[in-house]
């Protein structure tokens, strides 16, 4: 039993090459499927992910069902992914090539229909994201973009944004200046009224 679990049935180098090759192909497939595939996982996406993992399993493990062979594949995946992630963090050109760039989907309160069609995004998905950020509608958005990782980033127009602590502090400072000015004017008025009576 232990012998079968620990005996790798294909060479370890082949196992590593298979794992790296499948990783690279799946990355390319996700890159070609676009940012929309990462924006929100729906029922169909879940089905594809489950089937994809089952389809590529044999390509990774080959005829090897040993525990050690599975561990070699798992370690290879984690190491390759960590290396690619660090590479992308250091090299903006590689990140642009492998991940792509952000796509503007809303500009000055208007949907960018060509971008939506290209990304296969529905206006209802954008409207839902607007409501999550306390906007009333797409017209409240200064700019909306779909990032390479699938996140939809929306920037509300200045008039639609909630006040920040800095805004409130600036307002307090202005009110204090107005109060001081009113106090000075009231004092002058009293002095002027006293002289005239």
Automatic annotation (TrEMBL):
Domain YetF C-terminal: 94-161
InterPro entries: DUF421 (IPR007353), UPF0702_alpha/beta_dom_sf (IPR023090)
Compartment(s) of residence: Cell membrane
Membrane topology: Multi-pass membrane protein
Family matches, as Gene3D superfamilies: bsu07140 like domains (3.30.240.20)
Primary site of residence: membrane
Sequence intervals crossing the membrane: 12-32, 44-61, 67-89
Assigned keywords, A-Z: Cell membrane, Membrane, Transmembrane, Transmembrane helix
A GO CC term assigned to this protein in UniProt: plasma membrane
Family (UniProt): Belongs to the UPF0702 family.
Record protein name field: DUF421 domain-containing protein
């Amino acid at each position: 039993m232990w012998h079968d679990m620990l005996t790798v049935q294909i060479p370890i180098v082949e196992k590593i090459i298979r794992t790296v090759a499948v990783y690279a192909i799946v990355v390319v497939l996700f890159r070609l499927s676009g940012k929309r595939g990462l924006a929100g996982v729906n029922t169909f996406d879940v089905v594809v992910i489950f089937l994809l993992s089952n389809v590529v399993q044999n390509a990774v493990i080959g005829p090897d069902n040993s525990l050690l062979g599975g561990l070699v594949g798992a370690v290879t995946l984690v190491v390759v992914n960590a290396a690619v992630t660090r590479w992308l963090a250091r090299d903006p050109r590689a990140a642009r090539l492998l991940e792509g760039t952000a796509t503007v989907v809303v500009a000055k309160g208007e949907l960018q229909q060509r971008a939506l069609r290209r990304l296969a995004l529905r206006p209802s998905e954008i409207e839902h994201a607007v409501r999550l950020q306390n906007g009333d509608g797409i017209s409240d958005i200064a700019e909306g973009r779909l990032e390479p990782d699938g996140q939809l980033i929306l920037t509300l127009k200045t008039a639609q944004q909630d006040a920040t602590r800095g805004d409130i502090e600036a307002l307090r400072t202005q009110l204090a200046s107005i109060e001081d000015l009113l106090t000075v004017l009231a004092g002058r008025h009293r002095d002027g009224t006293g002289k005239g009576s």
